[in-house]
Fold these 3 entries.
Entry 1:
Amino acid sequence: MTAPMDMMIPEGMEAKFTCTGTTDPDEVENLKITWKKDNQTINYELAQRVFQNEIDNSVTISGSIYLDTGKYTCVASNGLDSSEASAQLIVQGKLLSHHCSLLIRVFVSCRRFEV
């Protein structure tokens, strides 16, 4: 099994994890790749920005937000046995860093004028 790679991306960008699995030649037709986020199977009907591509066994998160941060796990199964590999996605929020620096500046400004 080829594991997906950890990623750190800014909010709003696309994240794509790929995974490959191998099995005995007799079981190739039964090989299935599924994806989990934080140990829960991804429901693609509910996760409207998350798409699975069965051709390259990838999962893509479009327009990522901070809540997409987590552990993404690829599960390869042939019906007889299975194997898992995981990667971490960290989505860096743009607004959070801007608000923090703004709050720091306001705090420093207020402290300067205290008597």
Entry 2:
Amino acid sequence: MLGLVSALYALFGVVFVVAYVPQLRAVWRSRNGAADVSLGTWGLWCASSTVSLLYAHLVSHDASYTLVCLGNVAGCYAVTGTALLRRQRHAVAAAAA
């Protein structure tokens, strides 16, 4: 049973990391500065995933858990950073118009 749970955790870890791609694409293609993306929510997810990564690495010492958390950190920060960039570019374009 433990082997099955471990395999499922690894599988879903990969699935969740890949699931950031459509969100990242949508934010990048946004024409309104990603105004419909909640930076507060994504910021909390960034903080939570960072804490999870630290826990995985420093407390549990579990390589699989750490890799999944690292993927989540990368995805969260990629979406959040891209949303911030799109907002900044949208504001600059609006100010120039």
Entry 3:
Amino acid sequence: MTRVALDVGEAGDVPVAPATSLPELADFVEFFAAGSDASGEYRCADCGYGAVVQRVLPPCPMCRGAVWERRGSRSVR
């Protein structure tokens, strides 16, 4: 989890969060929800079950998990 500080400034100012650079995000894993359009190899984020998907990510057949991590680079959004 990344903590973000806000600069509130004067009472009339709108708080602005600092910009996050891409190198800071390089270590994060992108997750996809069951029901999302997808194509490629995925692993269940809960139990690690692997699946090859061609249309829509299903709930995990092993643990009924609903969050997937992409493996490979063939995913379509």
